[in-house]
Amino acid sequence: MPETYAPPIQREPIESARPYRAQRVIAMGDPDAEAFVVKDIAKGGAEGGVWRWTQKRPTVRVVLRSTDNQKLVADYTIPDVTFAQTGPVTLDFYVNDQKLDSVEVKKAGQQHFEKPVPAEWLKAGADNLVAIEINKMYVSPQDQSTLGFILARLGLSQ
């Protein structure tokens, strides 16, 4: 008879382990969002991660399988408290450092942006950078810290 061995030690699965998945539109509430943030987006915290404050030029990276029929998609909010100080702001939307559009926001509140991106601006199977740049930052009167706007989602969609 062959030798017998005890069964391997049973372990609990790691709750936070998730298989890698490509993201094209980064939702700030996604537990994996931090892996796609390049710069100027606050880490998830008191907001619960559903939305995050930005600085001057929040940027995310996305990988595409195809460059056909892609649109830049963004959901963001200009809060009343920052708008009271800055007034109307202009947001410039970029894909791989090429300016796609410029939008003047004339009132506080939630906003949605969506616009097709030329296929020649994009790279299949590689990082593509998607960014929004605000022209005027809010400056806190208490400590002089700066804020841009609130970001909920940013990326490329078909």
Salient structural properties:
mainly beta, nine-stranded antiparallel sheet, 1 helix, 4% helix, flat
Describe this protein's structure.
It is built from one helix and eleven strands, in the order ββββαβββββββ. 25% of the residues are buried. The chain is mainly β and 158 residues long. The strands form two sheets. Strands 1, 2, 3, 4, 5, 6, 7, 8 and 11 form a nine-stranded antiparallel beta sheet that branches. Residues 17-21 have low confidence and may be disordered. The termini are far apart. The protein is 4% helix and 45% strand.
Strand content: 35-45%
- CA distance, first residue to last residue: 61 Å
Instruction: Output the structural class.
Output: mainly beta
Task: Describe the largest sheet.
Answer: 9 strands, antiparallel
SSE string, helices as H and strands as E: EEEEHEEEEEEE
Q: Number of DSSP helices?
A: 1
Spans of at least 5 consecutive residues with low confidence: 17-21
Overall shape: it is flat
Number of strands: 11
Query: Level of helix content?
Result: under 10%
CA-based gyration radius: 20 Å
Structure, briefly:
The chain is mainly β and 158 residues long.
Secondary structure layout:
Blueprint: E1 25-27, E2 37-41, E3 52-63, E4 71-78, H1 80-86, E5 89-95, E6 98-105, E7 109-116, E8 127-134, E9 138-139, E10 146-147, E11 150-157
Antiparallel strand pairs: 1-11, 2-3, 3-8, 3-11, 4-7, 4-11, 5-6, 5-8, 9-10
